[in-house]
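With this grant's support, we have settled on a layout for protein records. One resulting record is reproduced below.
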Amino acid sequence: MDWNTTDRSQARIACLDDEPQALTLLEKALGEYQVAPFTCSERFLQNVSTTPQCILLDIHISDQHISGYDICRQLRQQAATRHTPIIFISANGELESRLEGYAAGGDDFIAKPFDVAELKAKVERALRHQAHSTDLESAVDNARQAAFEAMTHSAEQGEITRFIEQAGACRSASQLLELLVASLKNFGLNSVVANWSGRCEQLVSHQSQARPLEAELLKSCRYGRRIIELERRMVVNFEHTSVLIKNSPWQEPERYGRIKDHLCVLMSSVNERLIALQTELKLQQQTLLLQVVGELRDALTQLQQQRDSRLQQASQQVADLDMELREEVILLNLDPDQEQHLQQLVRSHVARLDQCYRSCSNVGEELQPILEGLEQVVEASG
């Protein structure tokens, strides 16, 4: 379905909330869509088979023995709603509540009281994603899953070997993460990979971009166990990288155990390559700094040579001035005391000028300790 040409009035949104006032607000905020409101979870589950394009779920439903998390899990087990975007709405906006919603199968979260603009933006994004990718992704994933179910252990090892060889040729972290996501797709796995080694966190998804709850889940699990299992989702952590597997084969014990082993090998390779890329970057920066220091030293040497040349020229000018002064004094017919006084006066001023010139031209000597300090810092950083 092409969302750009689809009338929004045809999009169906199912809403479950035990507060009629909240449903009224949702209907008004989403008036451009077909909104189906429910206050009863049983009626909701009976009628949700009409396949809405988006579902809004309240987490806490009073006077009922079921939560929004439980309903979400049931929806994810039904073929009709397995890939339908589900957005939780709750007055509890704590991170723990958000992560529990994501573990249950939710795609996003809105805290009450909700902002209408935020609600519409998140629903619009969910509908756009559903329209563009759900059918195609489902068909591709099913075909890929069926094809690679027959993959033997040796074939999987071959894929790992190819990845490690190609990872060594990657010249950037983003290129490395994209290679890993592509390799995991060859195992039938949808993933989001995080790079923690740089100054800024970097996420690469098998989709166009990582979802907000996926980013939160990776950050919250970063310092946890090596492998964190969340039913059909799994997080594998290393020092500089983490990966979220969104469709782990947890119901197939033999393949599931093999996949965990493969993930540890792949992620270890990614972690080491990220460290190597950081080292290579530091070496490049060190080389550049040494080059800059060398160029600065050469420039100061040239300045020193120019200074020495000009000092020689100035000394010659002073000698010429002294000679001309002697000749001019003779023509002035001064007495010896006047002649001596005039010569001392000129020589005194020339000496002061010479001292001033020399003190202002010692740039090389003054900067030499700084250059040596820079070189020591650069060498120590390596």
Notes: The beta strands are 12-16, 34-38, 54-58, 86-90, 108-111, 191-195, 202-205, 227-230, 233-237, 241-245. Residues 285-381 form one domain. The chain has a mean pLDDT of 82.
